[in-house]
Amino acid sequence: MMLFYTLDLFLLHILPTTTAAAAGAAYTAKDFILLNCGESSALNDNSRRSWDSDERTRYAPPNEAAISSASVAFPMNPFVSQVPYETARVFHSPFSYSFPVLTGPECLRLYFYPTTYSTFNSSQSFFSVTANGFTLLNNFSAFLNSPSPSEPSFKKEFIINVQENQRLKVTFIPNTNSSAFINGIELVSLPDHLYFRGDHMPIKFVDRLFYLTNDSALENLYRLNVGGNDVEIQDDSRMFRAWSQDDDYILGADFGYTPHAEDLPIKYTDQTPPYSAPEIVYTTSRVMANTSISLEWAFPVDSGFFYLLRFHFCEIQFEVIEQNERVFDVSVDNQPVDVQVDVIFWTGGTQIPIFRDYVVWDCSYIFWNRVSNDGRRGKKDLRLSLSPNTRGHPKYNNALLNGLEVFKLSDANRSLAVANPEPTGSSSPSPLALKLPGNKKNKGSCVIYPVMGSLIGILAMVIAVCYSRQSIYKHGLSITSRYRTLTTGSRLPLPSDLRRYFSLDDIKTGNFNGNN
Ligand SMILES: *[C@@H]1O[C@H](CO)[C@@H](O)[C@H](O)[C@H]1NC(C)=O
Ligand SMILES: *[C@@H]1O[C@H](CO)[C@@H](O)[C@H](O)[C@H]1NC(C)=O
Ligand SMILES: *[C@@H]1O[C@H](CO)[C@@H](O)[C@H](O)[C@H]1NC(C)=O
Ligand SMILES: *[C@@H]1O[C@H](CO)[C@@H](O)[C@H](O)[C@H]1NC(C)=O
Ligand SMILES: *[C@@H]1O[C@H](CO)[C@@H](O)[C@H](O)[C@H]1NC(C)=O
Ligand SMILES: *[C@@H]1O[C@H](CO)[C@@H](O)[C@H](O)[C@H]1NC(C)=O
């Protein structure tokens, strides 16, 4: 326990103080490139962004026409956007696009529509993609990675730091006897310290500090407007990030409440500048229902990688205006990554947004001994849980989340690549499949948890007791908590009647007395 507090104080100390004044103007990306591969003229997409043709572009080699071919999708699924998906560039040998961009973090989005084209069949296409020394994809089949037959096109988002005097060089390398293809390439430069926050901003990694250095690459896996609707790319803070609703990832049937207050202005700060996330992410939220004991989500991820989780918080309910009114713990795979989170304590008031980063390492493949010859370590679900912490007797037993981003970190080999999913009828595992109750106690899940002696031992015991109690009550109350309310106003009752159910008072030891 003490450990966590020491760390918290340290983090608070190094963070810039919150100033309630709105800080800075909206972000404008210095580099912004949209390349519609295989297309011969400039076209607008559904969000009215103009995509350039990649023919005779200065980003491609001069012999482009000789070493690659342009192809048109046939048949074209009517539900797939024509720009940039209707055309592709096909490569039979390694091919590089080279972008002269500024030094710093660049967001690279690769667009794929696996279908048949005039000159080739994408189901037989296996290839690698590298960028500035990172392996983004290896032996990749867009066909096997397609989200679903009804939604066959998809994009992959990576964040790469371009070092001084470097260009961003994206290389497509077909497997032997195969070909590679790409439908569209998007490049947007990001604010310098948005995701790579620098050495002075270490990230919590269980009870340690993790330094996310700029020689890592990130892949965005999930970006959610928790408790709200999908946010289209044109409604993002000029980085064209799509934020989706979180409903599909909720574990169990407990959706809680989704208070929102679109009319409330969000007071951005130096610490949380306006580009961190659009207002709509902070003015919509999900909170716990009366009868619930936690908010829980599950996200399928690839085993064997570090993950960066960014939680976005903002108190917008009129009931919660002071410190110690809503206090909760954040856990990943049943291990606490932060305790006694009090958003008002962090921000100093309501309508002030804040985000917090945590790093976790998924190592379940070691336990399942799952690494196969092709490096397949399997998928697992990363389970997130927010549960009230009643140690300081807060006014309400509740938890809150407004937004969430999940990134995979490149590994020691500078790779983000994994094996293709098994070529079954429904290729990638659907999050819904993970909602089966049997999966909830997946003993294979593990977030690295360094042994720190008896202190942690006691903590683990308390958590174990707490968790088993929670399970009991979850069971008993599951019928009443099986409802979902979409409220239109921001005024919502917050329950306090559950406090007695899992108060830690009766298992309190000397170690757990302080800090109330
Ligand atoms: C593409 O290849 C798949 C098998 O890999 C085959 O089922 C399909 O018919 C092919 N499509 C065309 C148009 O040839
Ligand atoms: C990456 O970090 C190193 C060391 O902190 C620094 O010298 C370099 O300028 C950074 N590069 C970028 C692109 O930020
Ligand atoms: C590639 O194709 C050639 C000729 O069809 C064949 O001999 C060779 O074994 C193939 N290589 C691989 C790796 O499939
Ligand atoms: C890096 O590559 C080496 C050699 O291919 C392999 O043995 C090792 O397991 C890889 N490391 C990771 C973290 O994947
Ligand atoms: C590439 O992926 C396919 C499909 O998952 C697999 O059958 C094949 O063995 C892989 N090839 C290599 C070289 O890993
Ligand atoms: C939740 O709590 C509020 C206030 O205590 C109460 O009015 C409401 O009926 C409760 N809802 C449920 C489903 O128990």
Automatic annotation (TrEMBL):
Keywords: ATP-binding, Glycoprotein, Kinase, Membrane, Nucleotide-binding, Serine/threonine-protein kinase, Signal, Transferase, Transmembrane, Transmembrane helix. Residues 35-408 form the Malectin-like domain. InterPro entries: ANXUR1/2-like (IPR045272), Malectin-like_Carb-bd_dom (IPR024788). The keyword Transport does not apply. It comes from the Eukaryota. GO terms for molecular function: ATP binding; protein serine/threonine kinase activity; transmembrane receptor protein tyrosine kinase activity. Its EC number is 2.7.11.1. The keyword Hydrolase does not apply. It is a single-pass type I membrane protein. GO terms for cellular component: membrane. Pfam families: Malectin_like. The chain crosses the membrane at residues 447-467. Its main location: membrane. Residues 1-20 form the signal peptide. It is found in: Membrane. It is an enzyme of class 2 (transferase). This is Non-specific serine/threonine protein kinase. It comes from Handroanthus impetiginosus.
